[in-house]
Amino acid sequence: MTFAPHVWPETAAIIAGRLFIGGCDTVALAERFGTPLYLLDEATLRGAMRRYRTAFAAAYPGPTRVHYAGKALLNTALAQIVAQEGLGLDVVSATELLVAKRAGMPLEHVHLHGNAKSDLELERAIAWRVGAIVVDNLDELARLRALTAHLALPQGVLLRVAPAIEADTHAHIATGSATAKFGLPLDSLDQAVAQTLTAPGLRWLGFHAHIGSQLFALDQVTATVEVLVALAARSRDRLGVIPEELSPGGGLGVPYTADQPATDIEHYAHVVSAAMCRACAQHALPLPRLTVEPGRSIVARAGVALYRVIGRKGERWLHIDGGMADNIRPALYGARYSAMLANRANVSASTKLEVGGRYCESGDVLLREIELPLAEPGDVLAVATAGAYTLSMASNYNLVPRPALVLVGDGKVCLLQRRESEEDVLARDQFLDM
């Protein structure tokens, strides 16, 4: 098989025919912790965070803030790492906000997102003084005005815009069109700003947009920046206010297969920063604080999933002990991955296979037409770029417990999330009592 380093963690190495990540033998990890097992490479994870901070600090002459989009993958230890590396954090639920607090994340560096926030989520965010609540619609704004009316210190808010930009990505992860479920339509922005300005418990910070995920065409990101700055100029001209913060979201694409280009964080920072500077100069606006929200491009490459080969079916099918319940992406939108046999990592591929998961759905095919050596039951299959939108969307379909997650680095391993037990899965069940 062809080993494409840019889709695997930075520390990936093949030693004596075995795949090592973070100085750890992945086959030994599979034996120790069981499979399916997810690994996070600490060097790749922290390196991406540092690259983002450094790149935007160098490229943008104004203030910047890099927020990790927790929906890609979030747990207490990962939130601790986010805080240690000086990033902010985006959350989209009350429990994600609880994880941020539990991890010691400075809550003034946390933003609460979501298109259908409950009163519980809004009240928790207000009580815990998050840095910003990102308002998605006028109904939410009305509820927020009522919930904050008593505040002596106003709650910061960003207004999320639907910028009417069709991102070149899968429809299920495109979020910026005029008809998307996310964001305020452009023709309601003046009303939203005015209502925010007249609410004594709210402090308007600026505008936010996010057009989608897995973006490679940066001209679409540039267009998003231009829309945000034009809206800032409109707010100045019509309402006499200038936003202090603008956020074009995140969504920078990452390679999952060898034919896709490596993620270039520095180029992304340069393009976004140049677009903001150019647009602000055109509209005679001061440079705002520029906030970006990478998730996938921080955590995806750091992750590797390990599965045990259970058996073969003819020359076409390979069956493994995981699948759509720990990684829904292939079934959800046809996502493709790179993979190798971790215990025979230096053996050349000999055939194209379909790798089927263990779950009772015909759509549970983790890898389609993947080139692998002829595998045997007991072999360990390693899947690259598995850090984002895998465990974060995992389920207990067929009542199967969810996998463990470990952090690896410098030959050491740290358990971040233990494997679920059957008792965990059944903990909510009650016996019939009628």
Q: What is the gyration radius calculated from CA atoms?
A: 23 Å
Number of strands: 20
What is the average of the pLDDT values? 94
At CATH level 2, the architecture of the largest domain is Alpha-Beta Barrel
| Helix percentage range | 25-40%
Hey, roughly how much beta strand do the residues contain?
15-25%
How many distinct folded domains? Answer: 2
Structural class: alpha/beta
Quick one: CATH class of the largest domain? Alpha Beta
Unreliable stretches (pLDDT < 50, length at least 5) are 167-177
CATH topology of the largest domain: TIM Barrel
How would the global form be characterised?
Answer: globular
**Ends: how far apart?**
59 Å
Give the structure's gist in a few sentences.
It is built from 12 helices and 20 strands. It has 434 residues and is an alpha/beta fold.
Question: What topology emerges from the helices and strands here?
Answer:
Layout (H helix, E strand, L loop, with lengths): L12 E3 L2 E4 L2 E2 H8 L3 E5 H18 L4 E6 L6 H9 L3 E4 L2 H9 L7 E3 L6 H9 L4 E4 L2 H10 L7 E6 L28 H9 L4 E7 L9 H22 L5 E5 L15 H18 L6 E4 L3 H4 L3 E11 L3 E4 L8 H5 L5 E3 L9 E6 L8 E8 L7 E4 L20 E6 L2 E6 L4 H5 L8
Parallel strand pairs: 4-19, 5-6, 5-12, 6-7, 7-8, 8-9, 9-10, 10-11, 11-12, 14-16
Antiparallel strand pairs: 1-2, 2-3, 4-13, 13-14, 13-18, 15-18, 16-17, 19-20
Descriptive notes:
It is a single chain. The protein is α/β, with parallel strands linked by helices. It folds into two domains: 5-35 and 303-386 and 389-419, Lyase, Ornithine Decarboxylase, Chain A, domain 1; 43-299, Alpha-Beta Barrel (TIM Barrel), CATH 3.20.20.10. Helix content is 29%, strand content 23%. It has helices spanning 26-33, 42-59, 76-84, 94-102, 119-127, 138-147, 189-197, 218-239, 265-282, 296-299, 329-333, 422-426, and strands at residues 13-15, 18-21, 24-25, 37-41, 64-69, 88-91, 110-112, 132-135, 155-160, 202-208, 245-249, 289-292, 303-313, 317-320, 339-341, 351-356, 365-372, 380-383, 404-409, 412-417. Strands 4, 13, 14, 15, 16, 17, 18, 19 and 20 form a nine-stranded mixed β-sheet that branches. Strands 5-6-7-8-9-10-11-12 form an eight-stranded parallel β-barrel, surrounded by eight helices. A three-stranded antiparallel β-sheet has the order 1-2-3. Helix 5 links the parallel strand 7 (110-112) and strand 8 (132-135). Helix 2 (42-59) runs parallel beside helix 9 (265-282) and helix 8 packs parallel to helix 9. The N and C termini lie far apart (59 Å).
